[in-house]
Amino acid sequence: ETAAPLVEVTGLTKRYGDTLAVDGVDLTVLPGEVYGFLGPNGAGKTTTLRILTGLIAPTSGSVRVLGGSPGQADVLGRTGSMIESPAFYPYLSGLDNLRLLAEYAEVPRERIDEVLDLVDLADRAKDRFSTYSLGMKQRLGVAAALLKDPELVILDEPTNGLDPAGMRDMRRLIRELGSEGRTVLLSSHLLGEVQQICDRVGIINSGRMVAEHNVEDLRGEQELVVRAAPRET
Ligand code: ATP
């Protein structure tokens, strides 16, 4: 018996004028898996993730998240996401930024220390956000996404723009989330990255889901994947 999917998308379409940003996407994320949504720039990843987090409405298709509709209060409360580059107050510390969010979300204070540890920012928590590297800023974004101890974590290109050390730290963090049993849906345009950190991969190109693979099976499909997404250099 398989557990109910946390994300179940069928025939998802999003149109912007003449542009079909998302064109009939089917996507299923199972409990406990780290799912990689792989595709080149403009493929439709961000649009899909924005729909899943209730930021925008689909044009058509069926979208179930945690058994409900995206944007429902109950669903939002059980989902943590980082879709745009996270907006924090630059002159406040990482800790104070999280305190503000925690207060707003009615999250107990102890949780702040837990998430700061998890994202490896405990020793920089009292420094101003503006002094953080991009990798640290992104990790604080993940910390914010984790505050409510969500069942589902959705991260849009969490390593985008990071230097090698920042990428390594972010990937390690995502693997940690996976190994503690959390369900993660992340997007990436790097094949090597999803091979490193994901259990299953869906490949999207020009708004269409081209293929879906268990990561172990990806090796044999190198050709297909490489055509759909540029390899990491
Ligand atoms: P990236 O990695 O660059 O974010 P992506 O895979 O996330 O790429 P989307 O951002 O979802 O791709 O974009 C898919 C297509 O939809 C692109 O052609 C984009 O130009 C278009 N698009 C996205 N948002 C809008 C919008 N608000 N209005 C018009 N077109 C849009």
Automatic annotation (TrEMBL):
GO molecular function, one term: ATP binding
Keywords of the record: ATP-binding, Nucleotide-binding, Transport
Domain of life: Bacteria
Positions of the ABC transporter domain: 7-231
Family: Belongs to the ABC transporter superfamily.
Name of this protein: ABC transporter ATP-binding protein
Organism per entry: Kribbella capetownensis
Complete-protein stretch covered: 3 to 235 of 306
